[in-house]
TrEMBL record:
It comes from the Bacteria. Residues 103-153 form the RNA polymerase sigma factor 70 region 4 type domain. Residues 7-61 form the PhyR sigma2 domain. This is Sigma-70 family RNA polymerase sigma factor.
Length: 173
């Protein structure tokens, strides 16, 4: 498969990750992806052929996101999740919905480096090695950030006890 086709195939994953980085803002996430793809295509002749194309494109996206956060008028500004998208009224007894909302708020409160690592691995399903390459950090640093992010999420959501943690997507506790 040609490199341009491989990059095009990454677009859905890039959009998911960019929207998560932009805290649910679809337009800002799409703008970030477009900027990333433009830069990737322009830099394609200069990329190292021995490195993973996926990690390389995600690194471009992450670096562009970092640039945008530095340029923001108020870096680190937290937006209430309720302001991101209005939700229709829900009938009472929506424990799963509430737990998901609580987790979404907790993820938004994580430090940026932990949030990037967690979203890349948990949301996008990147392998540890690909995520470390995309973030341009050693594998051990990524594992440490993931562990701290998960511990913080358990603490912020009141699931710090061993048996109250939600099962992982692969079915293991």
């Amino acid at each position: 498969m040609r490199e341009l086709d491989q990059i095009a195939a990454l677009t859905p994953a890039l959009r998911r990750y960019a929207r998560a980085l932009m805290r649910g803002d679809r337009d800002a996430g799409d703008d970030l992806v477009q900027d990333c793809l433009e830069r990737a295509v322009a830099a394609l002749p200069h990329r190292r052929r021995d490195a993973s194309l996926t990690a390389w494109v995600f690194r471009i996206l992450i670096n562009r996101h970092r640039d945008l956060m530095r340029q923001a008028a108020r870096p680190g500004h937290l937006v209430p999740v309720e302001a991101l998208r209005p939700e229709p009224a829900q009938p009472p007894g929506q424990e799963h919905h509430m737990a998901l909302r609580e987790t979404e708020v907790a993820i938004a409160r994580l430090p940026e480096d932990q949030r990037r690592a967690l979203l890349l691995v948990a949301l996008d399903g990147a392998s540890i090695d690909d995520a470390a390459a995309a973030l341009d950090i050693p594998r051990g640093t990524l594992l440490s950030r993931l562990a701290r992010a998960r511990a913080s999420l358990r603490s912020m959501t009141g699931r710090a006890g061993g048996d109250t943690a939600a099962p992982r997507p692969n079915g293991r506790p």
